[in-house]
Amino acid sequence: MSIEIRDTEGRGAVLEVAPGASEGPDQVALLIDGPSAHASWSCTPAAARELAAALVRAATEAEHARSAEPVTVKARELLRGDVRDGDRLMTVEAVRTDGQNVQVTWTSGSGRSWSQMYAAEADIRLRRRLRPGG
């Protein structure tokens, strides 16, 4: 598969993605070739899937980043898929309400997850608000 990419100065290159050599461990080959760059990399199929998932998340975020102004919601109103406003990508994975507190499990753009406890009435600023049903 060939994909046209550009460097930060706008120069084009072609990214080739293909199965690695049939000998040795399972690998996926990544080749970049263009007037300003030439590189050859490989990774495991699992790492290739992680890369693909990260690219999908980044593409979705890029498409939605400017689609709406940030909003502020109460912690108790958070929904799975909501994206926190800030320097780093943080997506709501799960929300559990326990009386006056809300436990939110966040997932970072790199796939790490952690939980934080908030007062149910705490204001949380979101970069993108998930719409119910999609």
Describe the model:
The chain has 134 residues and is α+β, with helices and mostly antiparallel strands. It is 16% helix and 47% strand. The protein has one helix at residues 45-65; strands at residues 2-6, 12-19, 28-34, 37-43, 71-74, 83-84, 90-98, 101-108, 113-119, 123-128. The strands form 3 sheets. The protein has a 4-stranded antiparallel β-sheet. The longest helix is centred in the middle third of the chain and has 21 residues, at 45-65. 8% of the residues are buried.
Question: What's a quick, concise take on this entry?
Answer:
By secondary structure, the chain is an alpha+beta fold.
Strand and helix layout:
Layout (H helix, E strand, L loop, with lengths): L1 E5 L5 E8 L8 E7 L2 E7 L1 H21 L5 E4 L8 E2 L5 E9 L2 E8 L4 E7 L3 E6 L6
- Order of SSEs: EEEEHEEEEEE
Mean pLDDT metric: 85
- Sheet of most strands: 4 strands, antiparallel
In spatial order, strands of the major sheet run 1-2-3-4
Q: Which structural class do the helices and strands define?
A: alpha+beta
Number of strands: 10
Q: Gap between N and C termini, in Å? A: 30 Å
Strand residue content: over 45%
Unreliable stretches covering 5 or more consecutive residues? none
